[in-house]
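Support reply, case 0932

Customer input (verbatim):
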Amino acid sequence: MFNNLKSSEIREMCRSTIETLEMWLRRLIDQQLSERFGGNYLQYQDELGNFILKKEIREGIRSRRIKEPKRYARDVDAILLDDAINIVLHPKLYSELFSTCFKHAFPMGPEMGRFIFDKISKPRNYLSHANHISIRQAEQIICYAHDIIDSIKTYYSIIGVEKLYNVPSIIQFSDSLGNIKHEAEINSNRNDVRVHFVLNCKENASLRPGDVLIVEIEIDPTFTDEEYDIQWFVQESARYIDDNKSRFEVKILNSHVGERFVVECTITSKKSWHRYGRSDDNLMLLYRVLPPVE
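Our regenerated output:
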């Protein structure tokens, strides 16, 4: 697998794979725990006053968010790989919430899961401290991590098929002004036409001519890039030239000045039908553009 790769390339491949695994685990944890215990699952206690997460995990999450609030916007963002492993393999949580998600990766149960995760987490620590890992360890990281990711994808595909409309949708967006919205908030803000966020309020940063606005979206990763098209629009103008890109960049002009500068992103699957008639998801953002400084 790695015969023609440099050591630095192998290490980067392993780091990237582990980061992808962490992303999938955090998404799964957030959805499963939120549905079962509510959005504030970090502080959830049962009828006997017992927390569902260990004190060490809760305090670690809280500490990281206090130290780096911009990096960790939500509790789930501050869950590290070791935390995620302990959460999904917790005997009660695994039995109630995660066994179906990992049945293809851990057919023999959570004990097998612990064994496989150890093959990833231990060499990950070596990578974090710029220490050497063997080719065998690199192979295990790549293979085992993708087995786990594929198992989670299979789970999402199954529950996706059970949805009324199984189409690609936006699960996160962020912009260069510091705004960021995650899957739960996006879903709660979705109506029968689009997802709509008003960002031209006083508490939000404003734009001026000469500024460059960057907006990035993340699409449900259970769908491949080949299964949908992305189109960007500005001020209800003609289709923007940079199609099929999840990152949109526009320079603010004098003609954009006003209380309602509209940026719109449309997701259209390759299916013969669409959730909203002509598209499957639509994100509309409203910004305020102030006059140029004279």
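We compared this against your earlier run and they match. Two observations from our side: The longest strand covers residues 258-269. Residues 7-37 form the longest helix (31 residues). Please reopen the case if you see a mismatch on your end.
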